[in-house]
Amino acid sequence: AANNLRSKLASAHEDLYGTGEEEARTEEAARLAEEERLLEWQRGCARRRLSQAVQSMEVTSLQEAIVEARALSMSDEDVDSARQALEKAWPCWWAALLEELALKHEDERMRRLEEATRAAEACGMSKEIVEQARRTLGLERDMEGARRRLRELLALVEPDAGELKSAIEFAETLGLKAAELQPARGAMRGA
After folding, report:
1. What is residue 13's predicted lDDT score, i.e. its pLDDT?
2. Distance from C-alpha of 93 to C-alpha of 82, rounded to nearest angstrom
3. Residue 189 confidence (pLDDT) above 80
4. pLDDT per residue over 134-157, tens digit each?
5. How far is the C-alpha of 178 from the C-alpha of 3, rounded, in Å?
6. Closest CA to 81 of 45, 119, 54
7. CA dist., res. 135 & res. 59, Å (int)
8. Percent of the chain as helix, strand, coil, to the nearest 5
9. CA spacing 20 to 30 A to 4: which of 20, 68, 92, 102?
10. Total Cβ atoms within 10 A of residue 125
11. What burial class does residue 186 get, using C-beta atoms within 10 Å of its C-beta: 0-12 exposed, 13-18 middle, 19+ buried?
12. Which residues, 6+ apart, have CB-to-CB distance to 101 below 8 Å?
């Protein structure tokens, strides 16, 4: 009788208040709707930033706006005009970057080239632009390796003339400047 009474009370409670499942479903639906509203608001802000970046034609602004839009899973349609503007602005920006980096320390050059290469990849730029950035970065890494090898050889009390000659030739092939090769050439003459 007690079990029967408990069953009837539980049934009456469910009739009055429900099982809680419907309330949980309602809360989940409300949470999802709020997340969707927030995402749409973020996408609206990202569209405005994309538009402003296109008007400015400033490479860094374009890159940041494109990366943000892609993180929000925006459509290619939303991003295309900014990507086209970025590809149009890229050659001049890239040339200016390389000119600026020629005067910088090796570590700074490597860091900035790595950043530029990652940004080109993250923005989904054309294969040609990404490959150009990768080649330049690879060449810079090779040049840094050649500089390091020359420094190592020059640090020796009596560097091997054959190794030094080979290191100089490799550095010349990569396009190291004459001023950078001068100490090694002087050591060659002294060897």
Report:
1. 62
2. 15
3. no
4. 999 999 889 889 988 988 988 887
5. 98
6. 54
7. 20
8. 85, 0, 15
9. 20
10. 19
11. exposed
12. 108, 109, 112, 113
Distances (CA, A) of 99 to 93, 110, 119, 161: 10, 14, 19, 34
Q: How far apart are CA 175 and CA 169, in angstroms?
A: 10
Given a cut of 70, is residue 16 above it in pLDDT? no
Distance CA 135, CA 138 (A): 5
Q: Which amino acid belongs to residue 147?
A: R
- Is 74 in a helix, a strand, or coil? coil
Q: What is the mean pLDDT of residues 92-115?
A: 89
Q: How far apart are CA 149 and CA 160, in angstroms?
A: 12
What confidence category does residue 58 fall into, taking pLDDT thresholds of 50, 70 and 90?
very high
76-101 and 59-71 helices, crossing angle to 10°: 140
d(C-alpha 152, C-alpha 50), whole Å: 48
Share of the chain above pLDDT 90, in %: 36
- Whose CA is closest to 109, among 140, 63, 131, 67? 140
Query: What are the structure tokens assigned to 45, written together?
Result: 């802000």
pLDDT at 48 over 90: yes
Q: Is residue 133 a contact partner of residue 97, using CB atoms and an 8 Å limit?
A: no
| 3-state DSSP assignment of residue 57 | coil
